[in-house]
What we know:
Low-confidence stretches: none
Shape: elongated
Number of strands: 0
Mean pLDDT: 91
Largest sheet: none
Strand content: under 5%
Oligomer: single chain
Amino acid sequence: MSKMFDPPHPGVFLRDEVLPALGLSVTEAARQLGVSRVMLSRLINERAGISAEMALRLEAWLRTPEGGGPSAEMFLRMQTSYDLWQAAHSGKPAFLVRPAMAAV
Length: 104
């Protein structure tokens, strides 16, 4: 994990790449995704993470006619990478646990 350099929040990808490429406003994208504008706004402004349900919605929404496009797994990997990096670099003390083998 130490080799990872501040991975982007998946909402940044949606805000900076997807919505402009589709020429959509947050309101219209939210309507097409079947979610509230507030929910999508929170996601693209890095105030909320991507849930498994949202990842599946995004996969279905961005699927190309050939069956390509970003997968739900890709969105969840982005979220996990972001969350792990943020937790590791939060400035909070490391978890104070003993390795399982030391406890035996």
